[in-house]
Amino acid sequence: MTGTVPDMAPSGRAARDTSSQYSCGVICARGLEKRFGERRVLRGVEFDVPRAGFLLVTGPNGSGKTTLLRICAGLAAPTAGELVADVERARVGFLAHEPLVYRELTALENLDLYGRLYRIPERRERTGMLLERFGLWDERHTRAASYSRGMLQRLALCRTLLHEPELLVLDEPFSSLDDEGAALLDRELEERRANASFVVATHDPDRVRPYATSHLALA
Amino acid sequence: MTYLSDVAALARKDLTLELRARDTLPAMLLFVLSTLVIFHFVLPADSSELAAKGLLWVAIVFTALLGLSRAFTAEREQDVIDGLVLATRDRSAIWLGKALSILVFLVLAEVVALPAFALFFTDVGGGTIAGVVLADLGIWAVGTLLAAMATASRARELLLPLIFLPLAIPIVIGGVGASVAGHPGKYVAFLGLYDAIFALVAWGSFDYVVTE
Predict the structure, then answer these.
(1) Could you tell me if A178 and A81 lie in one domain?
(2) Is B153 within 8 Å of chain A by CB?
(3) Nearest residue to B59 (alpha-carbon basis) of B10, B3, B2, B120
(4) Distance CA A181, CA B18 (A)
(5) Which residue of chain B has the CA closest to A112?
(6) Per residue in B119-158, pLDDT tens?
(7) What is the span of the domain harbouring residue A138?
(8) d(Cα A128, Cα A135) in Å, to the nearest integer?
């Protein structure tokens, strides 16, 4: 991807303006700013992710990576600036720090619930295929509460990929995964990079650098 | 698959969670029964029916508050609300699904509470039952929205009663009126109007509550 700045633009003075006067790929930001009270978390963030683009987001703790990803996923609104996304909310796959699954439900029940909400026509087949691919099939009737952190991350990846998202917003996707799990995720990223766009935040940029088409370094 | 199937899936999930965790309904049942027993001994034997009915409504409102305070616990502790917000086409389905499950818990608590009230105090007439049904709908509508709002706050345990109880005052006025008035029609109509207004407000505004 071209046109992505590696660091913040100097100001966040752009007002909330939805009249997009520039070309935008799947998702792009101009002068993005986010404040929590007096604390400014993001300032003047600009990027543009085209179709099949892969934006790598890096930065130290507290630099606003998670906040930026939440804005990209549509879970938070920017305080100023503009974020334009040419993708339906239902076509966004969001992997957060938490797996976003109910601990008292089994893996199968969690994915079935999300499959219903995403209105996936063949959700049982898709659920079964993903559970098998991520090595959770034998534990499909086990409540998520008794899963290890790595198994929860695998289940979270199943949830994220369940509806074949066009835009994947991944926050530390390799977190808690063992070598086998990381290899599975590598394979998924490789397979999907031609058909999906990615915004990925990580503290281990070398892991995903081969896929990245652009890099946003938050300070 | 439609909006209603989303609502049904979400409500069924809540009931499944409650069947497994059993951390809301048993607490509501214990609370409402304990309250009625305490009121039974506190209220003088020659006290009026009006006083007894008033205490019934105090018990119902605070039992509902107990259930509401637990309503979004699973979503809050595990951040699942983010996943639901992304997955649902219409975010109000989350509100409606949650509200339906709360309504089920509230009705089950009252199925136990009303006979207990009749045993300890006085008969429960048709006006009281109509008032309770309509009050449940009001609590259902406004309580679920406020519970979702309070969930986003760090002071949620403090905030929910502070914002819910003032809005529940009309429910208590209508409910007590329907219970004790000779002609409860106007109180029942008042509760119906309250329910309709707040159900529409809650349905329309939930989207803003779950977005930062």
Answers:
(1) yes
(2) no
(3) B120
(4) 32
(5) B9
(6) 998 888 888 899 999 999 999 889 999 999 998 787 888 8
(7) 105-164
(8) 11
Domain range for B50 is 3-209
**Crossing angle between the packed helical segments B144-151 and B49-69, to the nearest 10 degrees:** 40
B9 touches chain A (CB under 8 A): yes
The helix or strand, by DSSP H or E, that contains position B62, with its residue range, turns out to be helix B49-69
Q: Are residues A45 and A12 part of one domain? A: yes
User: CB distance from A109 to chain B under 8 Å?
Assistant: yes
A89-103, B2-16, B115-129: segment of lowest average pLDDT = B115-129
Total domain count for chain A? 2
Report yes or no: A35 at the B interface, CB cutoff 8 Å: no
Q: Does any CB of chain B come closer than 8 Å to the CB of residue A87?
A: no
A68 lies in the same domain as A172 = yes
What span, in angstroms and rounded, lies between the C-alpha atoms of A14 and A30? Answer: 8
Smallest CA–CA distance, residue A7 to chain B, in Å, is: 25
How distant is the Cα of B77 from the closest Cα of chain A, in angstroms? 9
Q: H helices of chain A, where?
A: 65-73, 107-117, 123-133, 149-161, 179-192, 205-208
| CA separation for the pair A163, A114 (Å, rounded) | 9
- Domain match, A173 and A133 both: no
User: How many domains is chain B built from?
Assistant: 1
Q: How far is the CA of B144 from the CAs of A22, A106, A219, B49, B72, in angstroms?
A: 42, 26, 40, 31, 9
- Measured between beta carbons, the chain B residues lying within 8 angstroms of A98 are 78-80, 82
Q: Which of residues 26-65 of B touch A (CB under 8 A)?
A: none
Among A148, A164, A180, the domain boundary falls at A164
Query: Using only C-alpha atoms, what is the Rg of chain B?
Result: 17
Q: What is the ipTM of this complex?
A: 0.86
Asked whether residue A153 falls in the same domain as residue A217, the answer is no
Please, which pLDDT band fits residue A18 given cuts at 50, 70 and 90? very low
